Amino acid sequence: MGMSNMVLLNVDVYWHKAYSNISECESFEEFKQTMKRHYFLLAGSVDENYVKDGGLREYWNDFWADFIEQNTTYI
C-alpha cells in the first residue's frame, strides 16, 4: 500500500468515526472533543486543513439539519 493510499484510508476511518459518534454527542463541543483524539488520522490530507478551518462544525450542522429534515412530519 502506497503512502497516499494510507492517507486516504486514514481519512475514511476518521469520517467513519465522526459519523459513528455524532449522534451520541449532545453538543458540538462534546463532538469536537470526541473527534480530537482521532485527529492524527487526518495527517497529510486536505481534510486536516478542512477540520482546522471549521469543517467539523459544518459537518455537525449538516448532519443535524439532515436528521431534522428526515424526521419532521408534516400534517
General description of the model:
With 75 residues, the chain is mainly α. The chain has one domain (3-70). Helices cover 72% and strands 0% of the residues. The mean pLDDT is 93.
Descriptive keywords:
75 residues, mainly alpha, 3 helices, 72% helix, elongated
Put the structure in a nutshell.
With 75 residues, the chain is an all-alpha fold. The protein has helices at residues 3-22, 28-36, 46-70. The chain is elongated.
How are the SSEs ordered, and which strands pair?
Blueprint: H1 3-22, H2 28-36, H3 46-70
Following the backbone from N to C, one meets helices and strands in this order, namely HHH
User: What would you report as the Rg, rounded to the nearest angstrom?
Assistant: 14 Å
Give the count of structural domains: 1
Total count of helical runs of at least 4 residues = 3
Structural class: mainly alpha
How much helix, percentage-wise, in residues? over 70%
Largest beta sheet, briefly? none
Broad shape:
elongated
On the 0 to 100 scale, the average pLDDT is 93
Span between N and C termini?
A: 53 Å
Tally the beta strands. Answer: 0
Quaternary assembly: single chain
Q: Return residue spans where pLDDT drops below 50 for at least 5 consecutive residues.
A: none
- Percent of residues in beta strands: under 5%
